[in-house]
């Protein structure tokens, strides 16, 4: 029996108020639907006993124009993918509107040997796309050593590290230094999961894995001075990430693209 915890990350959907409207030449609704279908196939292949993930993590910028109908739509469309669904807001989202879905208001999810900690990085927006962790979120991080778990996964929208792309590094987590000051005092953070970049990233910082999934909306090229849409046929497609959190603290993960 596989005791690993199965996670599915879907991020940066940018759903429009009208599902027929396009974004940068693509239809976000259709791209999300294609990801949902592909993720269902991959989950079935992971475990014949359950075609669902244990947890679906929606990591922000779920709406391009925040409306309750948009959030209801994404929850309905993704409902069959996981036993439990969780989300964090991105800079395009309305966190107060998202908070109206009271079944989604937990900050810490404990599952076996792991804690999944959901952080809101949309405080103090700069109007360009950056965001910060509020003092309350930073204080929450400082308390995590007290959790009755061996391993911690932190989840937020904004990347807490530079990725070598000038325009994207200008709109990463604005108070990343304060974030790492607190994380570095913890003994059991194994990984940080985020979105925002519209591209795959897999990095390391002092033994902590850093994972970003491609968007379901259009992708951006890596290592650019200004925003440039991806045009590489292998990277332009919508994508998602599957992770398996192992009892020993290791993580197996793969990114999948829609064919």
Quick tags:
five-stranded mixed beta sheet, alpha/beta, globular, 6 helices, 11 strands, 259 residues, Purple Acid Phosphatase, chain A, domain 2, six-stranded mixed beta sheet
Describe this structure in words.
- The structure is a single chain.
- This protein has one domain: Purple Acid Phosphatase, chain A, domain 2 (4-Layer Sandwich).
- Strand 1, helix 1 and strand 2 form a beta-alpha-beta unit.
- The mean pLDDT is 95.
- The radius of gyration is 17 Å and the shape is globular.
- 40% of the residues are buried.
- By secondary structure, it is an alpha/beta fold.
- It has six helices and eleven strands.
- The chain has a six-stranded mixed beta sheet, with no helix packed on it.
């Amino acid at each position: 029996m596989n005791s690993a915890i199965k996670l599915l990350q879907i991020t940066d959907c940018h759903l429009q108020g009208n599902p027929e409207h396009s974004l940068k030449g693509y239809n976000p609704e259709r791209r999300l639907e294609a990801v949902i279908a592909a993720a269902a196939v991959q989950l079935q292949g992971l475990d014949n006993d359950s075609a669902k993930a244990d947890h679906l993590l929606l990591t922000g910028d779920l709406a391009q124009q925040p409306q309750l109908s948009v959030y209801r739509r994404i929850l309905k469309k993704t409902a069959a993918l996981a036993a439990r669904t969780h989300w964090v807001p991105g800079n395009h989202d309305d966190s107060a509107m998202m908070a109206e879905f009271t079944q989604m208001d937990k900050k810490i999810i404990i599952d076996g040997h792991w804690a999944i900690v959901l952080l809101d990085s949309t405080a103090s927006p700069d109007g360009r796309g950056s965001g910060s962790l509020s003092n309350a979120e930073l204080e929450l991080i400082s308390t995590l050593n007290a959790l009755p778990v061996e391993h911690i996964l932190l989840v937020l929208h904004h990347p807490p590290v530079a990725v070598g792309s000038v325009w994207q590094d200008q709109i990463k987590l604005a108070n990343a230094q304060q974030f790492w000051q607190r994380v570095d005092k913890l003994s059991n953070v194994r990984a940080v999961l985020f979105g925002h970049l519209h591209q795959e990233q897999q990095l390391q910082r002092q033994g902590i894995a850093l994972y970003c999934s491609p968007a379901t909306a259009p992708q951006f090229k890596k290592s650019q001075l200004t925003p440039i849409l991806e045009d590489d046929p292998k990277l332009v497609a919508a994508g998602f990430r599957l992770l398996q959190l192992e009892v020993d603290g290791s993580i197996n993960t793969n990114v999948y693209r829609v064919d």
